[in-house]
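We close this part of the discussion by returning to an individual protein. The encoding preserves chain order, so positions in sequence and tokens coincide. The sequence in question and its structure tokens are set out directly beneath this paragraph:

===
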Amino acid sequence: MTTEQADARHYDLIIIGAGSGNSIPSPAFDGMNIALVEKGRFGGTCLNVGCIPTKMYVLAADAARNVSEAERLGVHATLDSVDWDQIKQRVFGRRIDPIASGGEAYRRGPETPHITVYDRHATFVGPRRIRTGQGDEEMEITADQIIVAAGSRPHVPSFIKEAGVPYLTNENVMRLEKLPEEMIILGGGFIATEFAHVFSSLGTKVHVIVRSGAMNRSSDEQVSQRFTEVASRAWDVRLNTQIDEVSEESGRVVAKLSDGTTVTGDAFLVATGRLPNGDEMNLAAGGIDMHDDGRIVVDEHGRTTAEGVWALGDVSSEHQLKHIANHEAKVVFHNVLAARGEGAEGEGVGAGNAAGAGDSARAGDLRSFDHRFIPSAVFSHPQIGQVGMTEGEAAAWAAENGTEITVKVQNYGDVAYGWALEDRDGFAKLIADKKTGKLLGAHFIGEQAATLVQQCIQMMAFDLDAREVAAKQHWIHPALPEVIENALLGLEFD
């Protein structure tokens, strides 16, 4: 231990963030002395304020919406009431909060005696040196290696903060004391559209303010346009519109819009994206570089620009997705052990047992992130599922690589299960290389979209020929995957 480290407690490994980072201390790490730093609730964004609770709310919204849409199936039903308190209790009281509390108790308990939990904010004060603390006590700790998995936070435009009006984000909107009668939502991405579906389906009048001309613009253009059309039938959607002024009057938020109109609500949700948390950690003191957009710079192995420091998840990744954070955690998990001269199962890897993850580990010992076929989904109404290139991206790729693409759009309503659904809006869009038969992109909008796309992920991940996938297996009839079968058969190849 150096003189500099003498006044700080030293660890083999410090992990900052108890989201995906909390999955890293597996049995392979039992021989390491580990510090786990988490200033918030254990489980991170996904468990507490993101994908898991939001989808539980979406399920309740879907149930309510099914009642209102049952008439088209010949079933006449009414939605008598929505018990907001019961919904919250199901989500948080019975599920989320006990899991988060249990996770923290486990890490603090006798089951993991090699792990010390710190619950104050972490900032770098030097190379592999962190200022944090426990309770009211501030202290500094050091480590041979550090993993930064500090996540992200909601982005709130400065003019809203400066206005002093009460606003909500994804981190507190689900814990509202009561269901709003009228809500203003600023944003047109997946967070905005999922909550618009939740609250409108449960009875709230929803105004959605979208700066651009379409919603969910990261999706394929045709999917984005269709989603915008369907959403506009259900919500008050204001496209190409901004909030010029926002104020509070008699307990309601009043938003004056760039189109000259005004909307009001007893709740105001800001859903304008999320920011990586690296800018709050004094990274420069630790020798850690950031991109212009605030993400920590990492290589394909998860190494930062500082020796012995790794990063994963929202704090460094372009893809703010839980399944990507989990994948990156597995890679970094292996690489941290490799840098110590241990394999993922504890086996030796030969040379490179010095502390840190720099050149001391052989390049061949390290695993790389696989960011080739990244799926995502929007659990709104309609649902969106997508993987790979959009049509525009595929066309540009084909031009650069001397090939052509083939595209097929298959309507849900043209297959048997689509008839049963009385579907008029859903479709599958597949994009493939015309010469090789390889699938380049798959985009779904409609019922079960997030599930249907998984079959296409497998085609791409295992480098399957779309022509063989269509012809060399049975497709259950009448089930919705027939929309994939028909889309595959509709692609034109050389």
